[in-house]
User: Fold this.
Amino acid sequence: MSQKTNIDISDDARLLHLINTEDTHEIEGLFHAARELCSRHYRNAVYFRGLIEFTNYCKNDCYYCGIRKGNQKLDRYRLTLKQILDCCRTGDALGFKTFVLQGGEDPRFTDERMVEIISAIRKEYPDTAITLSIGERSRESYEALFKAGANRYLLRHETACGNHYRSLHPGAMSLSERKQCLYALKDIGYQVGTGFMVGSPFQTPETLLEDLRFLREFAPHMVGIGPFIPQADTPFGVYPQGPLTLTLKMVALSRLILPKALIPATTALGTISPDGRERALLAGANVVMPNLSPIDARQKYALYDNKICTGDEAAKCRFCIERRIKSHGLVPDMSRGDYQD
Ligand code: SAH
Assistant:
């Protein structure tokens, strides 16, 4: 039971009620409780991660994702090791102490290649956290990358309902494999992030409840939540985007379930609403992920349409987000921001 709010997050009926409620007073109370709980553990700090989108090649065909294999219209790119290190140098000069390497599941980035990249970053930046977000790999692969110096791994479960998962992905992919990866990552010693889209096609309040139950069971260190946003060249291009308030409610409920989690105010939230990220911070999020990718790669890393910040220099992103944080009395924190046990 959360002390100040009497929101009993162990009660599934209560969670389902909060997922469904349209009572603005109740919703505001939920956001407030989540922010309070966050501040109790992390004060008003908001941590920075520098995002490097290093490849938009992908062997998967997820129905919602703009960089899916089947999207023939996408202009594909891969960054070289030198380009990745240049992004890190820019990030380091701007004060970042975490780099997040994200990409599609690109077979060219073999274990050997990833070890080479991670080792090079680790050598130049011994104290900087290295986060990977490169999809499903074998346990051996995750072990090799951890040994090379990676510290954290983001792998959203996307939906914790098996049937729903099958309606978002081709038959070759399964929720159980996704979960196996997550458990392996945790077991190896990574700080692990999972999460889900809100408002994806065929989602229901019950599947969202499953998502929260999975968070409770798996207890990740990080939780990434953003609205589904259609990308025109995908099979889901005609579906509506996920609702803002529901996404914020899921951020707040995740905070109540996992008081110490690191929860980003995602770019997708900033895409569906000009102040979406600030509102997430006020509903329990405590991480931002400004983009460090080269400008000409930004547009091509088109997970969904109308993605924000695709034309901005890294420094502009960094300081724009800092301004947004400060305007709400929160405090930008450039330290590594590790999960605090
Ligand atoms: N290949 C990596 C990274 C995927 S992209 C992996 O599998 O983890 C990162 C996240 O973007 C995905 O996990 C998904 O939740 C989100 N995403 C993809 N397409 C999206 C869309 N159309 N709308 C909103 N979020 C999307």
Remarks:
- The CA atoms of residues 89 and 226 lie 28 Å apart.
- The first strand starts at residue 45 and ends at 48.
- The chain has 13 helices and nine strands.
- Residues 64-65, 102, 104-105, 133-135, 155-156, 158, 197, 226, 228-229, 231, 268, 303-304 surround S-adenosyl-L-homocysteine (CB under 6 Å).
